[in-house]
Every structure is written in structure tokens, then in C-alpha cells.
Specification:
The protein is mainly alpha-helical. It is built from 6 helices and no strands.
Length: 153
Amino acid sequence: MECESAMAYVKQLREEGFSTEQIDRLLPKLEEVAALKEEDRRELRKRMEQFLPETKKDCMVVSEPEQNFQRMYLGFGGAVTELLRQNNESLLAQMDERVSNRILKEMNYLFRERENLEEERYRKLDRTIREYQAARQRTSLEEERKKRRFRFR
């Protein structure tokens, strides 16, 4: 619904005696209400008055600047809603990106830590194997020397 036609519908309903609160309740279905016959709109207004008693605002005379403000407020309502929706989508996209980046960094850190631990484990294992081999080699050299000593005697 265009803003100009919406304002025309609101003005038409206001001229027919609908209160501001009643019009506010009818805003989601404004086109359908404006399309009704005048008799049906009168009947609708009477039924609504049973549920929504008129407020003091209807008794007050609304000045021209206030009417302009109300028109502007009704016209910008949809635009503001759309801007808020777009802003929310943008914020969600930024949050998704930040969370994804954090998760990736954390995963990289955990993989590096795991690799470092495995590397340290293999270094220790390698050192232990080399020490064991060196000890066996020393032992075999000592045994060979002892055998040589006993042969010459």
C-alpha cells in the first residue's frame, strides 16, 4: 500500500467518525476497510465503539501541525520498520562472521597445540630410543673389550 493512498484512507475514516484508536486497530487491513460500503463502515464503527470506548483525544480539536505530524508518523512507520529489519539482518550477518572467525581461530589454536604435544611426545620417544640404543651399544662394547682382554691372557 502506498503512503499517499494510506493517508487518504485514514483521512476518509477520520471524516466518517472513526476514532484514532479505532483507525490504529484497523491499519493492518486498511485497504479492505476502505473498500467496504459506507453503510458497512458505519456498522463496523458502531461495533468497534462497543469494544473501544471513545477516548478524550477524539473530543479534542487537533491542530494542523499535529495532523501533519500524525500523517508523517503513519507514513514513516513502514519505512522505519523496514530499516530496522534490514539493520537486524546486517547485524546478524556481522555476528555470524565474527563467531565463525572466532571458531576458526580457536580450532587452529587447538590443532597447533595438539600437533605440538604430539611432536613433543615423539621427541621424547626418539630420545628414549636413542638412549636405549646408546646404552646397548656401550654394553656390547664393554663385553667385547672384556672378551679381548681374556683372550690375550
